[in-house]
Amino acid sequence: MERITSMVGYNTPLQSGMLRISFIVQAYHLFLLTAFFLLVIAFLVIYVAVYLKGRRKKLDIRHRLKLQYSDIIGQSIIAGSTAELNDIVNARQGSLQQWLTHPFARKVFIDELFRASKMISGDAAGNIIWLYNHFQLHVYTEKNLHSKRWNVVAKAIQRLAGLEQKQLIKSIYRFTNSREDHIRKQAQAAVVKLIGFEGLRFLGLTNMPIGKWQQLCLLHELSFHTGYKEVQLKKWMLSPNATVVCFALMLVHTYRCYQLHDDVIACMHHTDIAVKEEAMVTLKEIAGETTSGKLVTFFCVGEPVIQLRILQALNEIGTPEELAFLGTILNHPDGNFKLAAAKAIKSIRQNDGLEIIKKNVSALQDPWPSIIAHLQEEEI
Amino acid sequence: MSWKFILYDLLSYGIFTYSVVLLCFYIFIALYSIGETKKYIRQSTFVNYNNIAGSPHAPSVSILAPAYNEAATITENVRSLLSIYYDKMEIIIINDGSKDNSLQQLIDTYDLKPVAQYIPAPLHTKTIKSIYKSTNPVFKKLIVVDKENGGKADALNVGINVASNRYIVCIDVDCILEQDAMLKLIKPFMEGDGKQVIATGGVVRIANSCEIKNGKIVKVHLPKQFLPRMQTLEYIRAFLLARMAWSRLNGLLLISGAFGAFDRDIAIKAGGYNHNTVGEDMELIVRMRRYMEEKKIPYKVAYIPEPLCWTEAPSSYKILGRQRNRWARGTVETLKLHRKMFFNPQYGLLGLLSYPFWFFFEMLAPIIEFSGLIIFFIYCLLGIMNWPFFFALLCFILSFGLLYSTFAIVMEVMTYNQYKEKGDLSKLLLTAFLEPFIFHPFVVWVAIKGHIDLLRKKKGWGDMTRQGFQQKKTV
Are B197 and B300 in contact (CB under 8 A)? Predict the structure, then answer.
């Protein structure tokens, strides 16, 4: 160290300190790294240029293919019979068969058929599916179910369901409890799309969570199947999977299953707050004569959020029998509870609800002037 | 060994180690963000947001938009909010004691009348003067709150108090939202993978020079002006790389104040927005995360890598300086308030990684950089600069910076590719080249000023004058 410092003339501590760093990393190391970075930058720039060119080309090919396909798809949509469909296909048999040997062209055709099927229904949609089956395209889509890539599998499931390949439902069903999130969601939506309520069988088996978003997607798919069918709602409401219980309650709510009222009440004993909240929402829809009374019994043992929900529910389904209970809540320390109880009283006794409230509280004491003004405003 | 040697070694090795660790972090962030972005783009091809938009079971949302002296654009901005594609929502505009006629404009345009409404106020705020609702059923979603001036944090807390829905979306009133921004922002709250989502945020993009019609972006252009273009590149790096990586780690400490959604209950339990900091957006997220860590509740802060919100970036050095000054002060204030978490294992990743990263590489970075510059000048004056090594190091750092920016541009092209016009990418690359010489020194300088202002106990935002999108229309 001393030899080097004397050689280069760095003989102060400061200079020596700097030199120490330069023994760990020398200038030429840094230049080498700089050159490496510049090479990588050059590579990235070339890569982007090539990528954009390739993408533009691919988009161009896709656009041209779509123009070709739009003709056959458009005519097929309005075809009135299978014979007419055969004529349309036969007129383009040569060119179509040629295109469909190419994977990319085949993919674009399947995408276009899928896109068209989403926008139409009835016989027209049936014609699209006929086209899909005529060219045996389900064979290629089914192959993708065995891909190692989750997005390929999920897309394949989506396509098969969208193009109503009911014969493959067993293949799709085995994915309904997949550990891969998107595959599982697509499979669940697919089986419901294909066979409606019967497709919900997986609810009895799945140990994976069904999030609220997925529940809404399933409900959306169910909405295309007419009529409500007897399913195992009671069993699902006893599921150890809280999200299955929530979805079962949502089904009870949506399809107004009044006969399951007591089972929904039983869900108020569940340990999961989300289940109790969903049960509250459901009870408001299928309320009977005894609902409000039973909700009041849950008030004392419920969490604050559930207590508030109960008061808000009594606003819609409360009866005069709950007036005494609501009167006690008017003195609750939480302003939200006061307001909810006051609203419920006013809802039950529309003519003299305000007077009842004023009798039970110090109308001049904060926050009652604001609450009473609020209720009077609602009245107007 | 004398104290001089020790000091010089500490300085040299210290800065060297700091730089190496920082560069390693940047490399990690760049590579780690790829997987998350790729996953999101693939999964978004399956999601049909339209199914949920009109569903009666979709969650109700309260949009909170504080407004102060926005008379020039307030009615158009509110109209834009009212046209958001989401059924179950209320829009709460909080007039924070504007000195202009913002409120009167709203009253006249939207047929507002004062209503008596009881607000149980879990968060302490300045006095609410009046609450307005529209007599026109077309505008039934709109609520306008008039209050005493108290600052953005106070206005948002008023909004939280008034909101009646479980999820609140806090936005800047002059932001332009994408058509399905609300659906995409709310979706993570509904996913339910065992962790409670407490907040979500999305990518904020720069709207300068974009074509805007009826409150919607109709065509995206790269900003023509130099400063907004610099900020565009900066936002691409921050939103596409850094935030994606932190989101994947579940260590995100910041959701943009321009557009973010929160669980109202958790926000209230955490105490709402803090009046005593100018970085109230970051401070709320940190506090909400801290609350969940202390309660040992599994949680997540989600992030959407899609451009959901467009905002106007400062186009003058003066306004940009004020903005970055405030950001610097906000960072220091937030980190100071939550210093208990520093390397505290009780707070998991938050305390062991996120907080230290922000402390060392966001807060201290301008100070260390500025100190390095001073040391450089001292070495020059003393004639002891190792020039070959200096130039080698300079080239290395500049090339790394350029590489990082180039990578961010590549990610932008391969994901949402917003800037498609001929020459846009070349301009962005040129911007990346010029940044270390013009933009970055300015940002470091104003950050230092921010630290000085904080020591001088300066508070407040300064005048953040915006030109407004109307003047930026291009045909």
Answer: yes
